[in-house]
Amino acid sequence: MRERAIEIFRNIGTNSINIKDLARKLGVEYNEVVELVKNLLNEKIITCTNTKHGMYRLSPYREGIYVMTKKGLGFVILSDEEKDVYIDEKNAKNALPGDRVLIKIMDESYNLGKPEGRIKEVLNRKMQVAEVTSDKKERYYQIGKRLIKANIPNGIVDGTLVKLEIGKPDKGIVSTKVIEVLGHKTDPGMDITKLLYDYGFEDYYKDEIKEELKNIPGEVKESEMKNRLDLRKISLVTIDGSDTKDIDDAVYCEVLPNGNYKIITAIADVSYYVKEDSYIDKAAYERGTSVYAIDTVKPMLPRELSNGICSLNEGVDRLALAYIMEVNKEGKTLSFEIKEAVINSKKKMCYEKVNNLLDNNICDPEYEPFKEMLANMKDITDILYKNRVKQGSLEFDIDELKILTKDGVPVQFDRKSQGTGENIIEELMVLTNKEAAMYIESLGVNTFFRVHEYPDEEEISEIVTVLKNYGYKIDEKVSTSSKFIQHILDMVQKDKRGQILSSYILRCMAKAKYDIVNLGHYGIAVDAGRKEAYMHTTSPIRRYPDLAFHRIQKDILEGKIKKNTTSDDLMKKKEIAVHSSQKERDEQECERQANKMKMAEYYESRINNEYKGMISGFTPTAMYVMLDDLSEGRVAYSTMDDYYELLPELQTIVGKSNKKSYRLGDEVTIKVVRASKEDKEIDFELVRG
């Protein structure tokens, strides 16, 4: 309803509307709209134009985050329901990337397909990482494309990266203060460090957090176990990557005498140690998530917590939230409960050895006592997976790139594997997330959901048009049902184009996000209409929404809340959901840019080498080619043998004179002609294809 209301306000432009007419357009009761209008006013999305008659319109003023593209174009990111706003350089008012700004919308239909605005005020400066540079006359701090003239100490040489605090402009002059010298841009790992800071994954409240950590114990005390379910004698184990140090979850499974499965997933009780509104909590909220970029881990929580007292390490007592389920042989959950517990993990297992046991019957001697339990886990998770697919859960089967480095330098590209062990953990976590969300929603409290909305039918029609043009026979009526999409995926995954076309279809889907309204989860077949729900609860060390969701669960378990529907509480949760969704996107883009940077660095020493690959995408000026090692570069149309026109509705380019066409998944041979780590770009030329 909120999104539809904003769209109505946007459509009426500068005109105003009263609550009665808004309710009529939305098709809901008057009282429902009163609370909605109050929230939109608080968020400054709408403004009251006539208090006597209660008239409202879209506010021309908004708050958002200023960002810049690689080419220097400026935009302000608003809430997830609104389009980004284009900011011309002359209207940027000294704003820098990451600053929170107040803008005025000038034109709702700017020609880039986005509204245009003007920055009225810089509300809050983001801490910046700047590179020291100079010309013949002056020295500067460079942030993106922006140069800030400053009096830089002689001891700081060009190429040095500094953490910079920037004040508000005074008569056009920007004040700067160096908080920390990070190192030279050529130092090992400094490239990733700068990326992390650029995307807001910085060290917040360092001094305050050091003080708070002094009051957090390094081990669980006997007194802290009081009133908790003691599961220390249960053979809970953890299964992760061999180098994982921040362990969120432990699992257990047994077959009961009645043939059903008893499943326990124990999740680190982070909220016991990280108190709401503490500095550790504030820093975790700002980061939103841990980041795993190439060979660098930037944890959401201090390592003393993420790798220490919160991590479910082998052989030590740990506090946890335990999700205890009985599931029958058909995969139906018969009972579910949440308990505050204390556990002691019996074994830190790694995926490689679990896969070796379950796939090849090669058992590490240390895993011998757990063979039967792991076999039980495989049996029940196979059933859960089949049920999920039957309901319409999507399986894209897309390889992920893994970049191996030595001293920060890329040496090899590999594919991330997904074996039986990974599948077991994925299914147990999906089950836990789903059952926890449904249970909490059934109690009628304000809560969070992980949602994934249905795709647009027009986009599905475009996918079908492209695939038919590629020669695929699709006789079924176009549908937005996940079963129809899976039918298409099954079709394309059978041939050599499968990887490329699956990625194209995925790009056409909506992105999953966090919300306070249960919209279901399309990708894993969670249907709100069937009173199903989904929310992340299994990674509170690594994701802030999980931590926030844990607090709701613990408040219920401890009798602190029964039902809470106040607008203030709802607004706070909405803010957490929107912010967490944005930080997730930041984390994904940060990792993507890290991969692009390391790919370019790798190919800087391979100029003129020829490689085979497949066409993976098109833009108005270039086509992209993915090589066999999953690295990707571009072939500019201007370097090809004819003038090529892009037909976006067919995902095809066609030569104007030779009529030759290229499509997604076509095999080509390319030559590397340019690679730039700094620009994060690789340029190819077509050799054959």
Provide a compact summary of the structure:
It contains 16 helices and 34 strands. It is α+β, with helices and mostly antiparallel strands and 689 residues long.
Overall mean pLDDT: 92
- Quaternary organisation: single chain
| Sheet/helix structural class | alpha+beta
Largest sheet: 5 strands, mixed, barrel
Our estimate of the beta-strand percent is: 25-35%
Q: Output the radius of gyration.
A: 27 Å
Q: Walk across the major sheet and give the strand order.
A: 4-5-6-8-7
How many H/I helical runs? 16
Please provide a written account of the structure.
The protein is α+β, with helices and mostly antiparallel strands. 30% of the residues lie in helices and 29% in strands. The chain has five domains: 2-58, Orthogonal Bundle (Arc Repressor Mutant, subunit A), CATH 1.10.10.10; 61-124, Nucleic acid-binding proteins (OB fold (Dihydrolipoamide Acetyltransferase, E2P)), CATH 2.40.50; 128-187; 209-449 and 534-593, no CATH class; 604-688, OB fold (Dihydrolipoamide Acetyltransferase, E2P). The strands form ten sheets. A five-stranded mixed barrel has the order 4-5-6-8-7. β31 and β32 form a beta hairpin. The mean pLDDT is 92.
